[in-house]
């Protein structure tokens, strides 16, 4: 059996963690045996595009959002947000989990950022895809660019408002709570929050969806390094996210990517405006976060996009809590 595992670890003085033989014990970790099979990245993307184009099913609401460290309160801000609740993004979502994911978005940042594909001649503040994950991994909020566009401009506050609206209307107020999508974010200014900040607004090309997930993550040990999430995000923003299925293995004929494959984080050189690395700053290697893709061999098939997804879970569930982490049993041979 192949174990495509993400080992997130923190190293001191540029020393990478070397996997010990005890890692083999992790191959016995199984995925959830429940009947619900959460949607993967490809099916979520298809659902998001379909929902964006389905104007007939959209609803419009005026959210009002203020944040505290422990809860979401919705009041006193007027801006219409188009949203849609759909079970294709999952059902029985946990409200606290989705609030945890929303709280990781820098709500107070009102300056519009640019969002667009990675690996092109144009550099964007947020190379897509971008995702916010709850501390238990059960709920994700992912940004998406409208299907008729190639890039977008929106603030993190725009993203947060869309997420809060879906969480309130789809997760909290529906029974059972389901996922959903909000689209055309950033078209309306929010006077109550932008009086003392940049008055420019987004272009309505960005959206978000909220969905359920069941990641197979194990956290352990202690990271003992400050600002580790920023460092891990710098890795994820540089990752290949292509959806073409490739063969990963320890070598030999037919292997596209030889394992182990290791990423080292870059120095956080951008202004401290968010918990995410800004891509247009070219970093030096800082070795705070090291991610290693390994196999129990000899080979298996998976996409780079799925590998990126596993990194988002380990970072949110483990690094954010000051721990190392492992995502096991990805790939087609999940035996």
Report on the structure:
The longest helix is centred in the middle third of the chain and has 17 residues, at 156-172. Helix 2 (95-103) packs antiparallel against helix 3 (156-172) and helix 5 (228-236) packs antiparallel against helix 6. The protein is of the alpha+beta class and 335 residues long. The chain has helices spanning 41-53, 95-103, 156-172, 191-194, 228-236, 304-317; strands at residues 4-9, 59-61, 66-67, 72-73, 81-85, 113-117, 126-128, 131-133, 139-145, 152-154, 180-185, 206-212, 217-220, 245-249, 257-258, 261-266, 285-294, 299-303, 324-330. The model is unreliable at 1-5, 10-36, 66-78, 189-199 and 267-283 (pLDDT under 50). The chain has a 6-stranded antiparallel β-sheet with strand order 2-5-11-12-9-8, sandwiched between helices. Strands 13-19-1-17-16 form a 5-stranded antiparallel β-sheet, with helices on one face. Strands 7-6-10 form a 3-stranded mixed β-sheet. It has 6 helices and 19 strands.
Widest sheet, order of strands: 2-5-11-12-9-8
Euclidean distance between termini CA atoms: 6 Å
- The number of helices is 6
Helix percent reads 10-25%
**Strand runs, count:** 19
Low-pLDDT runs of 5+ residues are 1-5, 10-36, 66-78, 189-199, 267-283
Name the structural class: alpha+beta
Report the average pLDDT across residues. 76
H/E element sequence: EHEEEEHEEEEEHEHEEHEEEEEHE
Strand content: 25-35%
Shape: globular
Multimer state: single chain
**What characterizes the major β-sheet?**
6 strands, antiparallel
- The value of Rg in angstroms is 20 Å
């Amino acid at each position: 059996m192949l174990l495509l595992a993400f080992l997130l670890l923190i190293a001191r003085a540029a020393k990478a963690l070397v996997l010990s033989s005890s890692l083999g014990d992790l191959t016995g970790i199984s995925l959830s045996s429940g009947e619900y099979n959460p949607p993967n990245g490809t099916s979520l993307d298809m659902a998001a595009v379909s929902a964006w184009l389905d104007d007939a099913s959209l609803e419009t609401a005026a959210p009002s959002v203020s944040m505290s460290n422990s809860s979401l309160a919705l009041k006193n801000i007027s801006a219409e947000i188009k949203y849609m609740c759909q079970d294709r993004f999952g059902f029985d979502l946990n409200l606290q989990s989705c609030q945890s994911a929303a709280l990781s978005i820098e709500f107070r940042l009102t300056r519009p950022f640019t969002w667009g594909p990675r690996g092109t001649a144009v550099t964007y503040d947020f190379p897509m895809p971008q995702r916010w994950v709850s501390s238990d991994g059960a709920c994700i909020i992912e940004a998406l660019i409208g299907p008729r566009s190639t890039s977008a401009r929106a603030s993190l506050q725009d993203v947060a408002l869309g997420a809060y609206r879906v969480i309130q209307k789809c997760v909290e107020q529906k029974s059972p709570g389901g996922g959903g999508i909000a689209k055309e974010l950033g078209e309306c200014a929010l006077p109550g929050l932008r009086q003392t900040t940049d008055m420019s607004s987004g272009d309505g090309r960005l959206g978000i969806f909220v969905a359920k997930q069941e990641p197979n993550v194990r956290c352990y040990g202690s990271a003992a390094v400050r600002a580790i999430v920023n460092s891990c995000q710098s890795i994820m923003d540089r990752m290949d996210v292509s959806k073409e299925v490739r063969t990963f293995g320890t070598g030999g004929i037919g292997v596209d990517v030889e394992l182990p494959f290791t990423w080292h984080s870059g120095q956080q050189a951008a202004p401290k405006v968010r918990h995410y690395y800004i891509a247009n700053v070219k970093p030096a290697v800082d070795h705070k976060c090291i991610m290693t893709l390994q196999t129990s061999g000899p080979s298996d098939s998976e996409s780079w996009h799925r590998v990126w997804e596993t990194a988002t879970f380990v970072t949110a569930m483990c690094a954010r809590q000051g721990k190392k982490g492992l995502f096991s049993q990805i790939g087609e041979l999940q035996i």
